[in-house]
């Protein structure tokens, strides 16, 4: 599916190598309660605050499916353009671990709720790939073992035990760490648009298991290693880079890759073995006899489809078509639903390209600098719109507009009033401008002579006039007058 | 009244209602009987104080006209049901002194309806066994004895052996039980009691320690068919906490008693006529056919062709589910814990000490059949066979058969140590007539048919359509009417 450029190959000592990447993303479902119990799925809380009898696997306890989690999984599947399976089955994945109270994780193995789909990923302004989705299934999260509270004992926190996760499995369609990072970023955008996962990687709401292998370009697939539980987009990129290089080094030394599970250590910048294929668990999957097959009808799916919000790809296309935005700008604006909404509110009834420029360059630039997101912006969409109106109606110049933006950012207030009260209005009175132009020409006869030889000197004159008028002169009028008077 | 423990549950209910007897009197009589029968080892935990307190409340309710359907009736609860504030063991060492903070749905229904709980009844460990010999709290001894052989300790069947023995010994008016492959019906047959395993989904499994989730079902053991109908009505009902429980109205089963058998079609499956089946059992079966025929039913020979695969298939599916269900007993959160070198060592030592040999065997069988490379050959095939077994019954019922009549067990009760000591399969064969019912999720009832030559009871089994327990009560009632009256054993165990 990928249309990678050959430049993505990694240069080894013996020639080029291609890295092949597939990913399993665990996304925590946004829901009030856990997947099979009524306990709170909220992040945080004191250890074991959010634990029901079911989560603690007390004798005789039974799971009951949380329909909200099913709804979110279907909505996500629709957002991934994927097949929705009207009948799916929950299986038990059996293994022993203290933070897994039941001794099995309830997951979906052979019959997941969501089948094949696809995600369109913009790797750069000029490069777009499609990453195939193999499946999405629902499963329980495990609890957390705490080993640092005592020298002789481990403790277990079951707050996360039973929280609903969506495991989203991609095809091995990515060929570079850039593609992998762009894929996770896009998936995160889709999930956040849909509202089925908050995408918060720091809190563990989104985690990735990354499968990496290398091969000679066009050759057969190599043996893969799975890097478990990488929890930031940056680390995903780093982990792929170091793992690909590790594999290449082994192969170029005549060795072979062992299929194994590895962990990425961001501190040391290396991956290390967690367990080999031989040590892999036999999970003894079988259908959970406590739960009936999960069934719903097409009408339900259709209803959910009709209620889906506009998703990033559609929104991007609309921004290009109806606002005439360049594809790259449209792509930047739709990364976050809140940003896109901010843009649309700002652009309403205004010059959309101008609005896009202001939102992307001034607003996003400033927000990034301060580490804020768009919801925290001190400049509202209506204030930014007012600033744009003042530019469009020639009340202020672009330069003054930037100053005005700064004032609104740090002090707040209504832009129109600020312009009035602080006398920021652009001088459009040609008489006043002409006087300033004449004064500058009179004061600089040598420069006037130079300008006649070298018309680029015009810029210097414009600057001088602007200085004289405190930046308020209409630059277009200044230009025209200067050209006429200097005869350039 | 001379001996209150000689009342049936229905008679006791009526006596309480007409205030001929108080709940306290009735309860005291049963507590006395329970305490005098410790030689039988029916109870793991006796709760006489709790019972008296409940009886006092029942008397108040009866006086104020607020009596529930089971008000003041002393019952025993199989120790597989979690009971709030009362230790629950599943007859295993691994649960230690585990005391639930919650009440199982079914025992909760009984308390809601006014029942008095005398305590927790012994069983095979985790309900795995057919003789109650696998209990970590020692075997239960049946109140029945072979004629002329008082020294042999007869088993009460299993896994609900404490329930069947306590009911037959008149220690309680009725008892809860559970049935995964025959654990209600076989012990009932061995003790001359009535054991009803309802349709899968009829009773909630919530709060009952799980053995094999797709097969487990709660039901009552009582001395009469009417008592069974009364108890099941309280036990049954939809529970949103168990998604396999069925949201269907619970009929007044008592009303099904005494209905005419005219026009009822009873199937007699030829495949149950096993090679080597004793002439005694065959004669009992023929007798059952004759009783139903005399009562007006039509007898039809039927075929259930996949019957012979039921037992081996059961012994794949049940252990597979059990191996997973019992994984939670790991020493981490409750029950016993043995210290080990590391976490794996802790698990191994805890589970080796906590589980008895039969439970360990089934966990190993179950783990094996679910393993990579064996799953398709065993578990998947077994599930296919299970569908065929269910289909056999569907076809018979679709052809107009109302119920199926079979023997309940291939033999009367045996003595401790007589079966399964060298070959566990010998013990498993006890379930040969009962497992098909669990595999197909159908209701089945075991009703006394008479005594064997050695003086021990024999039972007949009736199998019904899904959720048609009423027909089973009607037919079982007819057999109860026709069969010789069961004389429960005199209390030889008092003072033993």
Structural class of chain B: alpha/beta
Main beta sheet of chain B:
11 strands, mixed
> Roughly what fraction of the amino acids of chain A lie in strands?
15-25%
What is the distance, rounded to the nearest whole angstrom, between the alpha carbons of the first and last residues of chain A? 57 Å
- The residue ranges of chain A in which pLDDT falls below 50 over 5 or more consecutive positions are 1-5
Query: CATH superfamily name of the domain at 8-263 and 465-482 in chain B?
Result: Amidase signature (AS) domain
Radius of gyration of chain B: 21 Å
Helix proportion of residues of chain B, in percent? 25-40%
Largest interface: A-B, 31 and 44 residues
Low-confidence stretches of chain B: none
How would you describe the oligomerization state of the chains in this entry?
heterodimer
* Helix-strand category of chain A: alpha+beta
Tell me about the biggest sheet of chain A? 9 strands, mixed
Q: Proportion of β residues of chain B?
A: 5-15%
Helix content of chain A: 25-40%
CATH class of the domain at 8-263 and 465-482 in chain B: Alpha Beta
Strand order of the largest sheet of chain B: 1-3-2-4-6-5-10-11-9-7-8
Q: Distance between termini of chain B?
A: 26 Å
- Number of extended strands of chain A: 16
């Amino acid at each position: 599916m990928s249309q990678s450029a050959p430049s993505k190959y990694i240069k080894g000592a013996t020639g080029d190598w291609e890295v092949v990447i597939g990913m399993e993303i665990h996304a925590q479902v946004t829901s009030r309660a856990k997947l099979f119990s009524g306990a709170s799925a909220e992040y945080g809380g004191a250890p074991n605050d959010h634990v029901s009898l079911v989560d603690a696997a007390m004798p005789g306890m039974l799971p009951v499916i949380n329909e909200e989690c099913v709804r979110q999984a279907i909505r996500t599947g629709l957002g991934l353009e994927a097949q929705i399976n009207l009948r799916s089955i929950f299986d038990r994945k059996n293994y022993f671990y203290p933070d897994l109270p039941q001794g099995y994780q309830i997951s979906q193995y052979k019959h997941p709720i969501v089948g094949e789909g696809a995600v369109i990923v913009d790797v750069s302004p000029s490069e777009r790939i499609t990453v195939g989705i193999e499946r999405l299934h629902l499963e329980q999260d495990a609890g957390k073992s705490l080993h640092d509270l005592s020298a002789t004992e481990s403790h277990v926190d079951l707050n996360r035990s039973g929280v609903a996760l969506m495991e989203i499995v991609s095809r091995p369609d990515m060929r570079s760490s850039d593609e992998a990072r762009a894929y996770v970023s896009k998936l995160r955008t889709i999930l956040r648009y849909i509202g089925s996962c908050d995408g918060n990687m720091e809190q563990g709401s989104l985690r990735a298991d990354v499968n990496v292998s290398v091969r000679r370009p066009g050759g057969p697939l190599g043996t893969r290693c799975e890097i478990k539980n990488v929890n930031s987009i940056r680390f995903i990129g780093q982990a792929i880079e170091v793992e690909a290089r590790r594999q290449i080094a082994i192969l170029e030394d005549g060795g072979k890759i062992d299929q194994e599970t590895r962990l990425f250590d961001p501190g040391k910048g290396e991956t290390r073995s967690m367990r080999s294929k031989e040590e892999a668990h036999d999970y003894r999957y079988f259908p959970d006899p406590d739960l009936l097959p999960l069934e719903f009808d097409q009408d339900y799916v259709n209803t959910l489809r009709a209620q889906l919000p506009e998703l990033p790809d559609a929104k991007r296309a609309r921004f290009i078509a109806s606002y005439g935005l360049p594809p790259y700008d449209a792509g930047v604006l739709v990364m976050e639903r809140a940003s896109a909404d901010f843009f649309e509110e700002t652009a309403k009834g205004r010059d959309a390209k101008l609005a896009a420029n202001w939102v992307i360059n001034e607003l996003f630039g400033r927000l990034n600098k301060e580490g804020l997101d768009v919801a925290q912006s001190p400049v509202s969409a209506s204030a930014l719109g007012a600033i744009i109106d003042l530019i469009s109606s020639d009340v202020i110049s672009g330069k003054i507009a930037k100053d005005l933006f700064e004032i609104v950012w740090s002090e707040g207030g209504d832009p129109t009033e600020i312009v009035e009260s602080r006398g920021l209005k652009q001088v459009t009175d040609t008489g006043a401008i002409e006087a300033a132009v004449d004064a500058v020409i009179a004061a600089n006869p040598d420069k006037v002579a130079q300008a006649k030889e070298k018309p680029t000197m015009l810029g210097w004159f414009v600057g001088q006039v602007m200085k004289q008028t405190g930046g308020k002169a209409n630059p277009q009028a200044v230009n025209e007058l200067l050209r006429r008077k200097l005869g350039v | 009244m001379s001996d209150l423990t000689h009342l049936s549950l229905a008679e006791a209910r009526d006596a309480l209602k007409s205030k001929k007897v108080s709940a306290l009197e009735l309860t005291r009589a049963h507590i006395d009987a329970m305490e005098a029968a410790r030689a039988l080892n029916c109870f793991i935990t006796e709760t006489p104080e709790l019972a008296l307190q409940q009886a006092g409340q029942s008397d108040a309710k009866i006086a104020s006209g607020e009596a529930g359907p089971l008000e003041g009736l002393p019952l025993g609860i199989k120790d597989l049901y979690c009971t709030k504030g009362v230790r629950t063991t599943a007859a295993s060492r691994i649960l230690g002194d585990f005391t639930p903070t919650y009440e199982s749905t079914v025992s909760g229904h009984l308390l809601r309806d006014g029942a008095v709980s005398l305590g927790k009844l012994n069983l095979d460990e985790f309900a795995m066994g057919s003789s109650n010999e696998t209990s970590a709290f020692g075997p239960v001894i049946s109140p029945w004895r072979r004629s002329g052989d008082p020294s042999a300790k007869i088993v009460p069947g299993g896994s609900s052996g404490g329930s069947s023995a306590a009911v037959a010994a008149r220690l309680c008016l009725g008892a809860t039980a559970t049935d995964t492959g025959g654990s209600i019906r076989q012990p009932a047959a061995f003790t001359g009691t009535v054991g009803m395993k309802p349709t899968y989904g009829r009773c909630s499994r919530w709060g009952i320690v799980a053995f094999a989730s797709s097969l487990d079902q709660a039901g009552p053991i009582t001395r009469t068919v009417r008592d069974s109908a009364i108890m099941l009505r309280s036990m049954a009902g939809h529970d949103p906490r168990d998604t396999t429980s069925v949201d269907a109205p619970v009929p007044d089963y008592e009303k099904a008693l005494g209905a005419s058998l005219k026009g009822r079609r009873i199937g007699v499956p030829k495949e149950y006529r096993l090679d080597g089946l004793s002439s005694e059992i065959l004669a009992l079966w023929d007798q059952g056919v004759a009783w139903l025929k005399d009562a007006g039913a039509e007898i039809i020979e039927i075929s259930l062709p996949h019957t012979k695969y039921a037992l081996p298939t059961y012994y794949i599916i049940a252990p597979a589910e059990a191996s997973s269900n019992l994984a939670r007993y790991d020493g981490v959160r409750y029950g016993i814990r043995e210290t080990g070198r590391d976490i794996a060592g802790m698990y191994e030592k805890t589970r080796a000490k906590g589980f008895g040999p039969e439970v360990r065997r089934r966990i190993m069988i179950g783990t094996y059949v679910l393993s990579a490379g064996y799953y398709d050959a065993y578990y998947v095939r077994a599930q296919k066979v299970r569908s065929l077994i269910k289909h056999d019954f569907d076809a018979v019922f679709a052809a107009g058969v109302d119920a199926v009549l079979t023997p309940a067990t291939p033999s009367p009760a045996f003595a401790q140590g007589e079966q399964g000591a060298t070959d566990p399969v010998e013990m498993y064969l006890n379930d040969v007539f009962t497992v098909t019912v669990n595999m197909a999720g159908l209701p089945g009832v075991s009703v006394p048919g008479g005594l064997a030559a050695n003086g021990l009871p024999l039972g007949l089994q009736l199998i019904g359509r899904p959720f048609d327990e009423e027909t089973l009560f009607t037919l079982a009632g007819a057999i109860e009417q026709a069969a010789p009256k069961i004389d429960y054993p005199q209390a030889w165990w008092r003072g033993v």
